[in-house]
Amino acid sequence: MASQRILPDMMAEDLAIQPLEQAYTIPASWYTVPRFHELDKEAIFCKSWQHISHLSTLQNLGDQFIANVTGNP
Question: Which residues fall within 8 angstroms of residue 71, CB to CB, at 6 or more apart?
Answer without folding.
Answer: 41
